[in-house]
Amino acid sequence: MTSTRSDLPNTIFSIIFWLLLWTVLGKVVGEVLLLPTPIDVARAFIPLLADESTYISISITLFKIISGLLLAFLCAFLSSFLSYVNKTFRALSASITRIIRATPVASIVILLLVWIESRNLSVVISFLMVFPIVHENILKGLDETDDDLLEAASSYHVSAIRKARYVYLPSVIPYFESALSLSVGLSFKSGIAAEVISLPSGSIGERLYEAKVYLETPELFAWTIMIIALSFLLERCFLVLAGAISGRILK
Amino acid sequence: MKLEVKRKAFGEKVVFEDRIFWVYGRRTLIKGPSGSGKTTLLRMLSLLDDDYEGTYSGKPRSPLVLFQEDRLSMKISVLSNLMMVTSERDRALDVLSKVGLAGEEMRKCHELSGGMRRRLAIARILLLPSDVLFLDEPLRGLDEGMKESVSRLILDTFPSSRIVVVSHEEEDQELFDIDSIISI
Q1: A144 shares contact with chain B (CB less than 8 Å)
Q2: What average pLDDT score do residues A122-127 get?
Q3: Antiparallel, parallel or unpaired: β B13-22 and B2-10
Q4: Terminus of chain A with fewer CB atoms < 10 Å: N or C?
């Protein structure tokens, strides 16, 4: 808390500095189409916030990306558990997660457009961005479960459910939280990139694309700022939720 | 209980060769110098380790081990460490108060001192049934007064169970009413 407070003046200073530099550059360029100033972007923001369709776009995009995220968490929990108990499954899942992580997002997007409907692309992309990170982190947590404690639990005939609740989960939770902070923002931004390519009706990606096509650069900037804010908020929401759940489990 | 060990080794290091161990008393003490294999013998007797050549007759039906290390889950609370082995919250709280940890139930285990952790590990075994109790350095890290009350508590909780203690503390012989000794 103390360090956050002491950083505040520097943070405010850096924000003002970059806004001023942006304004100066905007004035020097002198063309809204190429580089709008912060004032131009603010002017574009106001009608955007007043427009009902903005919130519909945000809802559509958030619904799809959160669906992909939740599906990824579920599959990652399942696959990491299977990898923990079965060496063959571990080898199979390790290779597939490595391939997903190494493949460029653009290649995945284009391939997926061949296989699935474009309106579902952002769901699949956010899933693919999150799944390998969460899978690997949970597996690491399982691998690092205290062997001595596991032996004690077995010798005391602790049931599988209690072992999961009191032995495995406390070991896995810190790794899961770390995976969340790494992956949620990434999946949101990748999901929107996928929307820009697949253009599902009413999504943020489509609005971003339209702003580009109609050369509405201030609106493009306004949507970008909105995406950054939403990405930050989504990440915070997931971390707060995960913190509340882990607080209950680790009590 | 009779354990005949033809050979027990860890890699090249032979721990026991052609040894017979009898546990005939109700309260048995295993003693010997450091590194002589006391804990290894306790693990074999309590069925935790069956990786040896030999035979074991009169095996315990439900052995219960108090490990030398506390083996607690450090990230969860004192009470949760007990709830790991029982669903009876009131009984867990009762046992905590018996080992002098009343009021500490919601503290995280890593916040406890060494002596408190030892008492919590002891509280956990008090919640479990057993015909033979295996205690590895049970009173390690406890102060004198606590040693007496905790050893009495263990004896009172398991009045009809056989107890095997590994210790190099002379006073443990008296505290656990030892009636037979295995020297390694």
Answers
A1: no
A2: 91
A3: antiparallel
A4: N
Instruction: Verify whether the Cβ–Cβ distance B73 to A149 is below 8 Å.
Output: yes
Q: Is residue B98 part of a domain?
A: no
Residues 170-189 of A with CB under 8 A from B: 170-171, 173
B64 touches chain A (CB under 8 A): yes
Identify the CATH number of the domain in which residue B19 sits.
3.40.50.300
- CATH class for the region spanning A34-249: mainly alpha
Calpha distance B126→A158 (Å, rounded): 15
Q: Does B68 contact chain A (CB < 8 Å)?
A: no
Q: How many CA atoms lie within 13 A of A203 on its CB side?
A: 26
Please report whether residue B90 resides in a domain.
no
Report the residue of A149, A159, A171 to disrupt the B interface, i.e. the one with the largest count of B CBs within 10 Å.
Answer: A149
Does residue B107 belong to any structural domain of this protein?
A: no
ipTM for the predicted complex comes to: 0.90
Q: Which has the closest alpha carbon to B122: B162, B154, B81, B164?
A: B154
What's the angle, vertex CA B22, arms to CA B18 and CA B23, rounded to 5?
Answer: 145
Q: pLDDT by residue for chain B (184 residues), tens digit each?
A: 999 999 999 999 999 999 999 998 899 999 988 888 999 999 999 999 999 999 999 999 999 999 999 999 999 999 999 999 999 999 999 999 999 999 999 999 999 999 999 999 999 999 999 999 999 999 998 998 899 999 999 999 999 999 999 998 888 989 999 999 998 8
Residues 6+ apart with CB under 8 A from A38: A19, A22, A23, A26
Between chains, do B72 and A149 touch, taking CB under 8 Å as contact?
Answer: yes
What is the layout of strands, in order, in the sheet containing B13-22? B13-22, B2-10, B53-57
- Domain of B20 in residue numbering reads as 2-62+129-183
